[in-house]
Structures are given as C-alpha cells and as structure tokens.
C-alpha cells in the first residue's frame, strides 16, 4: 500500500524503514487430532475408526464445544505393505480421520486434548493459537512503525545539521506479520497421562514494517 502525500523534487530526501511490534494473548486455539486405525480388512479398519471418531466427537460435545466448531479436515484410506527381501507384501489398510477443533477458551486446550485422547484419539497433528481481532493490534503496530520511521529520519536529519519536514512524501507498507507461539509438538503427548496435558498458549507477536521517504532542508534550501 503506497500513499504519496506530496512531492518536493527539489529537496534532498531521507528514506528509512520503521518497525512496530505489539504482543497480545491469543483468544482462539485450533487443534487438529484424530484416529488412525489399521486392519487387514478394510471394513474393519473403517468400522473401528468410525466408532472411535464418534466417541471423540461426542466427548467434545459434552465439553460444550459447538458441533460447527468440530470439522473433518482429513479422511484417507491407504494400503500398507511390509517389505521382505525386496518383495512387497500386503499388510492391511490404514484409515486416518482427523478433526479440526476450534475453541474460544484457550485455557481449555489441554482439557480438549486429554478428553479426545481418553475417548479414542491416538494422533495429535497440531495445536496452534491465533487471535480473532488481529486487525486492531496490527493497526497499533502500524502506528508504532510510522512513528519509528519518523524518529529515525529526524535523527538522521539532526545529525546532518538539517531540519526534517515531518510529513513524509511517501509511505509504503512493507510487511504485515503475526508470529505465533511455538506450536505444540504432538510427540509431547503422553497417552493415558495421570495429570492434565500442560499447554501454554504464550503470546502472539504482531509486527508491521513501513518504508517512508522524508525531505529535509538546510541553508542551501529555503524553509517553509
């Protein structure tokens, strides 16, 4: 996004980059988990998988998670083989059914994972945290980035013994980035653990970067 405000081609200019960062606690968790079953019989693998997934969904519903916030994101059937002396030997079928669960109470993330595992889930793909109203925080970061650019330009002008024209002739939005906390690693999940799975959402970092061009004047140029 470029916003040229005015131009003074006869004035020297300074081009700087400004950065702004805002930290915010996430208010939404997105969990992907599910059930993987294997059997020499495809119908058995499908049946066992469907039964386990139904148990998981019913358990999540009992946590008052709305049904529309529980969605299937992966369903696949794969043939499994063993290899002996370079020979491919049929082993059976693997059925994978993964659910995406979106919750607004991030403090319940560990409870959701434990409930799903205790109800039959045997695979946790990912847990990530996000923020629903990120635009509000991004605008704060953007404002800070613009101020940062102005401060840098002013420092350069003062060092040169010049006077900065405070209104930039051009501002370009360079980067919009939301850095999430480190995702939860599924390998840390201990099935049947005696204590709740501890999952800390941390904070999100919302960052904005702008490039701004300012003009300045010294004794060689008349002031306004």
From TrEMBL:
Q: Which domain of life is it from?
A: Bacteria
**Gene3D superfamilies in the record:** Protein of unknown function (DUF541), domain 1, Protein of unknown function (DUF541), domain 2
Which Gene Ontology biological process is one annotated for this entry?
Answer: DNA damage response
Q: Which InterPro entries match?
A: 26kDa_periplasmic_antigen, SIMPL/DUF541
Cross-referenced PANTHER family: PERIPLASMIC IMMUNOGENIC PROTEIN, SLR1258 PROTEIN
* Name of the molecule in the record: Periplasmic immunogenic protein
Question: Whose protein is this, by species?
Answer: Paenibacillus beijingensis
